[in-house]
């Protein structure tokens, strides 16, 4: 009986102590829409609006567009040896034109295959691109 009484006393005293040292919780779930700050090149061109507004079931289209954009930028870095922000993050126009010409009518499975091919091409030049960009402090 004595052990039960001591256990109850400790539990009663531990509650307020735990409340004093626990972090303050907030019920504020407001989304912060401030612009994202990147580690490098904060003046990047905005993505096409359709990529942000796309139905989640069609997100594969935005992923394909992003992969195409990144590969074309990396190819430009390799060709020029320049990893400045303008080269690393060019306008989306040429990638968007290529997407509309080659990929817009493909099925989800075909998009997956294209993304795998684009990623494979990107992996082949990744080491060289990283070396160029690290040397210029832009990786």
Task: Offer a quick outline of the entry.
With 139 residues, this protein is mainly alpha-helical.
What does this structure look like?
- With 139 residues, the chain is mainly α.
- The protein has helices at residues 2-21, 49-53, 59-80, 85-88, 93-102, 108-135.
- The longest helix has 28 residues, at 108-135.
- The protein is elongated, with a radius of gyration of 26 Å.
- The mean pLDDT is 87.
Shape: elongated
Tally of individual helices: 6
Reported for the largest beta sheet, the result is:
none
- Helix-strand pattern, N to C? HHHHHH
The chain-level mean pLDDT equals: 87
Q: Could you give the distance between the termini?
A: 67 Å
Entry keywords:
mainly alpha, 139 residues
What is this structure's SSE topology?
Elements: H1 2-21, H2 49-53, H3 59-80, H4 85-88, H5 93-102, H6 108-135
């Amino acid at each position: 009986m004595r052990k039960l009484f001591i256990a109850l006393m400790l539990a009663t005293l531990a509650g307020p102590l735990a409340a004093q040292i626990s972090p303050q919780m907030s019920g504020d779930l407001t989304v912060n829409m401030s612009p994202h700050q990147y580690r490098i090149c904060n003046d990047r061109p905005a993505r096409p609006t359709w990529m942000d507004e796309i139905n989640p079931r069609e997100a594969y289209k935005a992923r394909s567009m992003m992969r195409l954009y990144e590969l074309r930028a990396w190819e430009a870095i390799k060709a020029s040896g320049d990893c400045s922000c303008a080269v690393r993050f060019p306008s989306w126009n040429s990638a968007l034109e290529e997407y509309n010409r080659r990929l817009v009518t493909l099925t989800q499975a075909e998009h997956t295959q294209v993304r795998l091919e684009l990623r494979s091409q990107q992996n082949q030049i990744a080491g060289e691109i990283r070396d160029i960009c690290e040397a210029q402090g832009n990786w």
